[in-house]
């Protein structure tokens, strides 16, 4: 199953996918509990909203698998982490 495409945005703790360019219509993705006493709620919402862009960036780098990763400034451990993050995001 594929995820809802990005970009996603945050609006008062709701993660949304906008169906049109003027942001008038949107699809609800998720909601983050914005507890006033906890300052990380909005940051968590932004991280969730960034997920499609982060996955796309990692998949873009993944085409270099097996090639000389030094040209990208990556070490083998970085590559392992990239593959693990993609698998985690896709539920593999």
Mind explaining what this structure looks like?
Strands 1-2-3 form a three-stranded antiparallel sheet, covered by helices on one side. The chain has one domain (8-90). The protein is an alpha+beta fold and 92 residues long. Strand 1 (8-11) and strand 2 (14-18) form a beta hairpin. The protein has helices at residues 41-62, 76-90, and strands at residues 8-11, 14-18, 26-31. It is built from two helices and three strands; from the N terminus they run E-E-E-H-H.
Reconstruct the topology from this structure.
Blueprint: E1 8-11, E2 14-18, E3 26-31, H1 41-62, H2 76-90
Antiparallel strand pairs: 1-2, 2-3
Instruction: Trace the largest sheet across and list its strands.
Output: 1-2-3
| Alpha carbon gap, first and last residue | 11 Å
Low-confidence stretches: none
Task: Estimate nothing, just give the exact number of structural domains.
Answer: 1
Please state the CA-atom Rg, rounded to the nearest Å.
16 Å
Count of DSSP strands: 3
**Which structural class is indicated by helix and strand composition?**
alpha+beta
Whole-number mean pLDDT: 80
Q: What is the overall shape?
A: elongated
Largest sheet: 3 strands, antiparallel
Give the topology string: H per helix, E per strand. EEEHH
Number of helical segments?
2
As a percent range, the share of strand residues is 15-25%
Tell me the helix content.
40-55%
């Amino acid at each position: 199953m594929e995820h809802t495409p990005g970009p996603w945005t945050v609006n008062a703790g709701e993660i949304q996918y906008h169906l049109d360019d003027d942001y008038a219509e949107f699809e609800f993705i998720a909601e983050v509990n914005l507890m006033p006493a906890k300052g990380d709620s909005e940051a968590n919402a932004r991280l969730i909203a960034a997920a499609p862009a982060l996955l796309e960036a990692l998949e873009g780098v993944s085409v270099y698998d097996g090639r000389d990763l030094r040209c990208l400034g990556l070490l083998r451990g970085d590559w392992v982490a990239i593959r693990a993050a993609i698998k985690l995001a896709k539920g593999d």
